[in-house]
Amino acid sequence: MADSDGEYVEDLSDDDLHDHRVAADGTGASYGTRSKAARGTGTQGGRRKARGGGRSKAAWEDIKRSWENVVEAEDGSITIEALLEAEKRRRLMRDTTPLQRGIIRHLMLVLDMSFAMAEKDLLPTRYLLTLNYAVDFVREYFEQNPISQMGIIAMRDGVAVRISDMGGNPAEHIEKLRTWAAQGEPQGNPSLQNALEMCRGALFHTPSHGTREVLIIYGALLSSDPGDIHDTIANLITDRIRVSIVGLSAQVAICAELSPRPSRTPRRRTSPAPAPATTRRC
Asked: Residue spans with biased composition (Acidic residues) (predicted)?
């Protein structure tokens, strides 16, 4: 039993307070305290109920009934068939397109600077048009392949001449191309074999995780070679070097053997507009 009315009221529950509440209508001053305490306690209880109504759920209330998916097989083993089937469906719906990341390209650009490039079927001349597009190609190549490497070789007077070494600085390659454009007109015969052998030497020490490519801009209908070019083609296949050729004139048989089989369909360029798109696909 509590010693005073105040302590007695505090020990009572909310339901008991409603039963024992006495109105202060003059019947006794001693019961006024109990009535006030009851009203105060009722207000606090309402606040507690309001706070309890918006509380967050406990962790155990959101538990998943994983045991309902457990099925006992005929041999007595326990399997979770629903989960296994869902995992199989996720694997089937997953995109399995093979992606090849981290490729570093190593490209040798070979330009024909023989007498055939002096023709004016592509204005102003094949030679100047090829050099202008080569500058654009170098710039776009390094924009799309910022960590790749490139070297440039010219074919003239029956030999292969190195314009720029293998490197990753586009400004250096562009400067060398513009220097060659100011030196004079194209002359002599081209030599595919000499150019390809020089490309093999430049690509020999490239790492295996990168590609080895040769892109040739060819305008002549002949090739002045010192030996059997078919031996060079066999060496290119052994070294896994891919050769692409953009022909500015009629189709040449040896060029068809050098190019990959899917791209052997001849396409003659009669205007300068499609030339960048041709080199972009290589």
From this structure: 1-14
Closest CA to 138 of 169, 103, 113: 169
| Residue 221 · residue 252 · CB < 8 Å | yes
Exposure on the CB side of residue 224, measured as CA atoms within 13 A: 13
Range of the domain at 29: 5-49
Return the higher-pLDDT residue of 25 and 165. 165
Length of the chain: 282
Distances (CA, A) of 76 to 65, 71, 73, 79, 129: 21, 10, 5, 10, 79
Count: domains in the chain:
2
Specify if 189 maps to a domain: yes
181-197 tens-digit pLDDT: 888 789 999 999 999 99
- Which residue, 275, 158, 159, 156, is CA-closest to 215? 275
Q: How far apart are CA 191 and CA 258, in angstroms?
A: 14
Do residue 157 and residue 263 come from a single domain? yes
Q: In one letter, which amino acid is 273?
A: A
Query: What region, left, alpha or beta, does residue 158 occupy, with left being phi > 0 and alpha being psi -120 to 50 degrees?
Result: left
Backbone phi and psi for residue 253, each to the nearest 5 degrees, phi listed first:
-60, -40
User: Which residues share a beta bridge with 117?
Assistant: none
Return the half-sphere exposure (C-beta side, CA atoms, 13 A cut-off) of residue 130. Answer: 30
